[in-house]
Amino acid sequence: MPSLTIHRNDTVQVLTGADRGKQGRVLRVFPDNATVLVEHVRVVKKTVSSKTGRRTKGGIAEQESPIDVSNVALVCPNCGPARVGFKIDGDMRVRVCKKCGQTMPTKK
Ligand SMILES: [Zn+2]
Q1: Are 6 and 36 in contact (CB under 8 A)?
Q2: What is the pLDDT of residue 107?
Q3: Ligand 1 center to residue 12 CA distance, Å?
Q4: In Å, how far are 6, 62, 72, 76 from 67, measured between CA atoms?
Q5: What is the 85 CA–ligand 1 centroid distance (Å)?
Q6: Average pLDDT of 37-55?
Q7: Could you give the percent of the chain with pLDDT greater than 90?
Q8: Which of 7, 17, 40, 102 is within CB 3.0–4.6 Å of 106 for a Cys-Cys bond?
Q9: pTM
């Protein structure tokens, strides 16, 4: 499985599309098709039917939809959206900002 440079709980900035420039937290990563779900990005309104048998009234629910990882950039704490490289630290492969060399550990 190809490892993505974007991980869950990363802060990313959207590079293209209607949400260009928005930053958000990565909610989910889908390695199979290299897409990520980013909080408050590419939100689609879904009509919620009241016919589902639940007691909730019908209405509009907002939900994020996945965006291609190539359309987002990891946000470096020093320089903002940045390209990511890797370095070997002990036996760990860690992500580093290509601009300033800041390591960007995966948040749990
Ligand atoms: Zn940086």
Answers
A1: yes
A2: 77
A3: 13
A4: 12, 16, 8, 20
A5: 11
A6: 81
A7: 70
A8: 7
A9: 0.82
